[in-house]
Amino acid sequence: MNNSAGVRFLRNHISNRVFSSVKRPTYAYITITSLCNSRCRYCDMWKNKREHELETDEWKRIIDELVHLGIVTLTFSGGEPFIRNDLFELASYAKSRGLITMVVTNLSVFREHHIAKIAESFDFFGISLDSTRPEVYKEIRGVDWLERIKENVHKIMAGLNELKAEVQVCGMVTISNRNASEMHEILHMVFDHLGMDTISFNLLDPGGGVSATEFSPTPEQITQVTRVIFDHKSVYPISNSSRFFSQLGNFDYRCNPWKCVQINEQGFLTAPCLFSSTKPATFPEGRTIDLRKNNLSDVWREVQQIYAHYASCKLCNLGCVVESAWSTYDLKFIIQDSFCDMILPTIKRIRERNNRQVKHIVTT
């Protein structure tokens, strides 16, 4: 974490513990495009059409606003973010403004000349990998891309090794009833076969699409998944806390949705979040929050009243949500679960990777 980001994180944590009138957000999640070239069975986003998406300069102005608010981490999301030709330009701009930059991609449109840009533009590079078996990947994602994705990961890891880049490359796994039995194999694929830096797990969101409930894991499967991951947590750097896995499927948290600013592809603030509402946020009188026309910092105090209604929400099981909630007030969680249990092991592996001490099997 660079110095400016570290200072903002500490300032936000102290401010949110001491003051209650106006909260400081820490994370931002921007959907730079709603278009997606996957056909995931549990998500309907791929059915979206392009409509009134923000231009590059408009996103840069919003990024400036996020910095002004005190944001530390900015995630570029979609749809598939790489459908936007200006993704690297926007990420580089955000990084130049002191933000920690993150992206999650299906890696389908990767090209080898992207490697240097990935190293320059991103601090965290997440790649969706839900199975070790092509037929299961296709059933989940609706496309037969697994072997191509694995080949692309090999190229990225080799290129980042040569550059001695410190970007974290993470395998992003959505736990469903289709892949719950292969968590052991997925872990070894990500670390031993692909040589990636870390892995992150999330439970499938049953509200993601009309067929999502068909993919929800059973309580027995969740128990099995938890046991397998705990067995590997002392061996591999896993970007979820031990507290997350101990409560998997039954989280005890207070959401604090204001902690993460979420903005859709048309520049509307989505509050309380993208997961409980797909419509732009509105004030009681029906006014939407269009960031093409409003500076976020100008309306932020008013926005607090929207978030306040959802302070006890527990609708989702996403690790980024529950762990963000725990980190808001629990300093022990930040130091022990987050820094010592997640961040340090990943940093160590990246250093070993750049010194060519990480062993993995490369196959064609």
Description:
The protein is an alpha/beta fold and 364 residues long. It has a seven-stranded parallel β-sheet with strand order 6-5-4-3-2-1-7. α7 links the parallel β5 and β6. α2 runs parallel beside α3, α3 packs parallel to α4 and α11 crosses α12. It is globular and about 50 Å long.
Tell me briefly what this model is.
42% of the residues lie in helices and 11% in strands. The protein contains twelve helices and seven strands.
How many domain units?
1
Task: Give me the oligomer status.
Answer: single chain
What is the correct CATH architecture? Answer: Alpha-Beta Barrel
What is the average per-residue confidence, as pLDDT, rounded to a whole number?
87
Number of separate strands? 7
Beta-sheet strand percentage? Answer: 5-15%
State the name of the first-level CATH class. Alpha Beta
Helix-strand makeup class? alpha/beta
Specify the biggest β-sheet. 7 strands, parallel
The helix-strand sequence is: HEHEHEHEHHEHEHHEHHH
Distance between the termini: 35 Å
Record the strand order, biggest sheet.
Answer: 6-5-4-3-2-1-7
Q: How does the overall form come out from the CA principal axes?
A: globular
The CATH superfamily is Aldolase class I
* Total of helices: 12
CATH topology: TIM Barrel
Helix fraction bin: 40-55%
Keywords:
364 residues, alpha/beta, TIM Barrel, 7-stranded parallel β-sheet, 12 helices, 42% helix, 11% strand, globular
List the helices and strands and how they pair.
Blueprint: H1 3-18, E1 27-31, H2 56-69, E2 73-77, H3 87-96, E3 100-105, H4 114-121, E4 124-128, H5 134-141, H6 146-163, E5 168-175, H7 183-193, E6 198-203, H8 219-232, H9 242-246, E7 260-263, H10 296-308, H11 319-329, H12 331-354
Parallel strand pairs: 1-2, 1-7, 2-3, 3-4, 4-5, 5-6
Helix pairs in contact: 2-3, 3-4, 11-12
